[in-house]
Amino acid sequence: MRVKAQAKLVSDGYEACKDMTSEYAKTFYLATQTMPDEQAMATWAIYAWCRRVDEIVDGPNALAEASMQEESLREWMDRLERMWEGKNFNGLNQYDVAFADMIRRFPGSDIEPYKDMVRGMMMDVSDEVKYDSWEQLYLYCYRVASTVGLMTLPVMGTAEGVTQEDARESAIALGIALQLTNILRDVGEDARDRGRIYLPEEDMKRFGVDPQTVLDRSLKGGEVDDAYRNLMKFEIERAREYYRQAEKGIPMLAKSAQLPVAVAMELYREILDKIELNDYDNFSRRAYLTGFEKLCKLPGVWLRVITGSWNVA
Length: 313
Ligand SMILES: CC(C)=CCC/C(C)=C/CC/C(C)=C/CC/C(C)=C/[C@@H]1[C@@H](COP(=O)(O)OP(=O)(O)O)[C@]1(C)CC/C=C(\C)CC/C=C(\C)CCC=C(C)C
Ligand SMILES: [Mn+2]
Prior knowledge:
By secondary structure, the protein is mostly helical. It is built from 14 helices and no strands. It has 2 domains: 1-107, no CATH class; 129-313, Farnesyl Diphosphate Synthase, CATH 1.10.600.10. It has helices at residues 2-24, 26-32, 37-58, 66-84, 94-105, 112-122, 134-156, 164-185, 187-194, 201-207, 211-220, 226-247, 255-277, 291-307. The radius of gyration is 20 Å and the shape is globular. Manganese (II) ion binds at residues 54, 58. Its EC number is 2.5.1.32.
């Protein structure tokens, strides 16, 4: 009976993680629909863990003071370490129950990417967040996004004869590409809602874009000028280069993981085309794909997966 009750707790936990994924991340959820059950469930548990840590910093219930957010992140790190050691402590909620089960089912998982993600969120708490160079922004992207690839690789598995180490570089590149795409899509929203500009200052300077103008245009709306267009073209090309590196990793993944990862990759990559179509106005327009557009992309992605036509140069 106790075993049955425990199993119910775990399956309810996964169900809650699934609901969270389908509610907050339509693209990732769509991608998990093509996975075998055990992989999909583990991915939802990882998604829910990542989403909850992100919410500490920028969710609707985020604590107002930076020092309080830091304290929350420190507690989150302790909580992670305790779950990793298999400790069953008070306050373990349904998402944690699924997460703890996932760690047990995939013993190849490593705690380091999880800790790095918390460190990445720490970089985002201060009101004065800014990135002087691409090197600094790269570190942030690595910590909050490439880590997701490293968390999910043990769940996805690799093709025969390919080690996780072989696939690591492409997994990291995919995280960088996705996070940079996120940043380019959300320039207006980040500036309006949080006074944040993630674009590297050295790039803005080089293209003659004043950070104050980015904030003003995001708040009041305003023309996109050639200087800003050129900056966006440069950053979009940078993101595309990381997508090309990431592509090499698709055939390195286990067969069951190739389609879901390729779907997530291709749908996000398309957002860059949408920014171009919006004439680089990411101050007042959010680049996105409709559900119908996403569905239309699927057969093409599926074809690329079965024919293995990826850039492997
Ligand atoms: C070899 C090879 C190609 C391997 C593939 C490895 C792989 C599966 C990589 C996937 C990488 C991935 C999905 C990265 C997510 C990047 C991301 C969106 C990060 C977001 C950070 C903060 O940004 P921001 O605050 O600006 O964003 P919001 O506006 O708040 O959304 C994150 C929010 C960090 C937390 C990340 C998540 C919540 C997403 C986690 C996603 C999964 C676990 C699903 C992965 C599943 C598939 C099918 C790819
Ligand atoms: Mn966020």
